[in-house]
Amino acid sequence: MAQQDVSGTDSGESSKFTVVGDGDLPTSKPKLGADRATLSAEETGYAIHVASTDASIPADATDVRGKAGPEFLYADLPDLGDDYTGRKAVVALYDYTHDIAYDQVVDLGAGKVVDSTKSAKAQPPTSATEADLAMRIAVESEEKLAFKAEFEENMGVPLIDPDQVDYVAGSWVFNKTTAKGKECGEDRCAQLMVSTASGVYLNTFDFVVNLSTQKIVRTQ
User: Shortest CA distance to 169 belongs to which of 119, 204, 117?
Assistant: First the structure.
């Protein structure tokens, strides 16, 4: 997998944002922490709001489920080597309308994006929402995928729901070591790692999920 991390894991530095209340992101500046303190949930939510509504994001941007607005991937502090002072956050977004990744540096004190980088080739770590959708596409696919046969062989019942297994997903880019999947890198693709409740890992190396087209891509 080409990834910094996988969905469902935390590097220990990034700040996870949990939706509460009606699910709306905070639009008013929250109480700010020290420059290098871990982002609070309120700061993260505000950073996502500022980053995703900035003029640098196309008005027709959509997330992985086709809803208005880019997909939120993660928020973190800027790297120590970056020339940023004050309370800043880096917010990673993905626009599925145009298959473009964005890194938005948000000045939380000023309430604005101070640096925006976009790339049609970058494939940041997957979000939990992307992982969930990739798993559902794989489970519901009519393709004869190895992990579904292995699950039934191990558990004695067919795999018909993602809740039957544990899984994480990472972004996947074609690197010429597989027979297929050349579109992955320009399209957003995810490789799944799946295990049974008893901890048996299932073979998922014969396919990846193209999240841009929401189809299975055979790699073998």
Answer: 204
Single-letter amino acid, residue 208: V
- Residue closest to 76 by CA, chosen among 106, 117, 31: 106
Express each pLDDT in 161-194 by its tens digit. Answer: 999 999 999 999 999 988 899 999 999 999 999 9
Element of type H or E holding 149: helix 146-155
Cα–Cα nearest to 189, from 156, 212, 165: 212
**SS3 category, 105:** strand
Residues in CB range of 186: below 8 A, 6 or more apart: 99, 120, 121
pLDDT digits (tens, 9 = 90+) for 42-83: 999 999 999 999 999 999 999 999 999 999 999 999 988 777
Strand partners, 87: none
> Which one, of 132, 66, 127, lies nearest residue 91 by Cα?
127
Q: Under DSSP, is residue 130 helix (H, G, I), strand (E, B) or coil?
A: helix
Provide the whole-model pTM.
Answer: 0.86
